[in-house]
Fold F-box domain-containing protein.
Amino acid sequence: MAEEEFVKPSSPSSLSVELMETPEMVKSYSRNYDNNNGKHKWRKLAHQVTQHSLFNALDDGCLMHIFSFLSPIPDRYNTALVCHRWCFLACHPRLWLRVDRTIKDPPEPGVFPSIEAAITAAKPGEIILIAAGGVHITSNVPIRKPLCLVGGGELPEETTLLCSRGSDSALEFFSACKITNLTVKAELGCCLLHRSGRLFIDTCVLQCETNPLDYLSCPIVCMSSGPKKLPSPLSKALGDGVTVSRSRIEGGAKAVLTSGTLVLQNVRVIYGRSSVLFWFEVEHQ
């Protein structure tokens, strides 16, 4: 019988650091879950029980029930790093909040028809998995607690958030958060409005619609008025700012509009055949 592969859990120093890696874990599971028939495509791992762990002798349902009492970050995240079976159970869709705009009947617990409803119901540190397909209308939605928003598609273009004309932004951030694998479009205004906390933007597409008032549009507006930059490495964990990686930014007068002592730093660009990918940070001087 093949032994399970064990990985030593990390011990990050803060919630915002944990948010940097969690979405890849959830997105990987979402690609292996069949929402049509509710049956996972992974082979069952319940029979792979090590001889030295009585805890692993519990069945999948019992373990999943135990994991449901853990806080999503960092406890449930670290649980998923123990072995393949625990990763499968800790990443089960029943343990994460989901947004599905096609829901008409009363949804099952943890499933919401809109992003705003999911954010309101979420606990600090939870991960919200947004279903791919269609357009999610999202206008001036405030996020005041640490959360992670993950697109459920294979590519960012498969999960789109649209900020309609007349709104300031799609999402407004007041706390440490991360968004990944999402496309955010704004007809006029900005895609993301950052006011405080550390915001991570990874593998996203931020797009301002082309129109005669382009000079009024910016994909990212950063208005943080918090303390100046903290000594490294605390700045990325605790300080106010924005970190962008592997993301496309299109349209608008400029990619980022800052205020006060905030400045654009560490800019890197990779030019591809059909797109341009950006890496940069916005920090206090």
The CA atoms of residues 40 and 223 lie 43 Å apart. The longest strand covers residues 241-250. Residues 22-30 form the longest helix (9 residues). The chain has seven helices and 18 strands.
